[in-house]
Specification:
Layout (H helix, E strand, L loop, with lengths): L1 H24 L15 E4 L2 E4 L4 E7 L2 E6 L5 H10 L6 E3 L4 E4 L5 H38 L5 H34 L2
Antiparallel strand pairs: 1-2, 3-4, 4-6, 5-6
């Protein structure tokens, strides 16, 4: 029975790491990336549609993004959606495609982005610790119901702690990599 608890705990912790990676993909660095536009929604025939579903996003150069809509009539809506987004970038519409030059980040903006990244990482650590707490409570309830012994309880809580430490360490590695990417000039 505790094996199932451990398995569920690991799955939930892995989902937290995946969510962190997804959030980090949306943080703008000095480099162009199609992932920057994951959160951009375009008004397409009255529906808020993800940009990736109405256009091709390509990165021909390190600091250039080219967005080519499949339907030219949506070009203006794509431009508006990008301007309204929190990316702080200006799209250049030439009537066929939208070109976006990604400016290098200022030192102040880099520090701000690192702070945001650290905050997101801390939220993920808290989430992982909450998952640990839930798992430990579940194991204690099994022991109270006499489904497992006191030794099993101790062994299981130790295993849960090892899993927690592993995922906290993974959060730290993901944060470290993102910080390095943001601070890269």
């Amino acid at each position: 029975m505790p094996e199932q608890v451990k398995k569920n705990t690991e799955e939930r912790m892995q989902k937290s790491i995946t969510a962190l990676n997804t959030e980090f993909n949306g943080l703008r660095t000095g480099r162009a990336s199609a992932a920057l536009f994951d959160a951009v929604k375009v008004d397409y025939y009255g529906q808020k549609t993800p940009l990736s579903q109405v256009a091709t996003i390509s990165i021909p150069e390190a600091r250039l993004v080219v967005i080519q809509p499949w339907d030219k009539s949506v070009l203006g809506e794509i431009e508006k959606a990008i301007q309204k987004s929190e990316l702080s970038i200006n799209p250049n519409n030439d009537g066929k495609v939208i070109r976006i030059s990604i400016p290098p980040l200022t030192e102040e903006r880099r520090k701000e982005l690192v702070k945001i990244a650290k905050n997101k990482a801390e939220q993920t650590r808290v989430s992982i610790r909450n998952i640990r707490r839930d798992a430990n409570e579940e194991i204690k309830n099994l022991e109270k119901a006499h489904t497992i012994s006191e030794d099993d309880l101790k062994r299981s809580t130790d295993e849960i702690q090892k899993v927690t430490d592993k995922y906290i360490e993974e959060v730290n590695h993901v944060l470290e990599a993102k910080e390095k990417e943001i601070l890269e000039v």
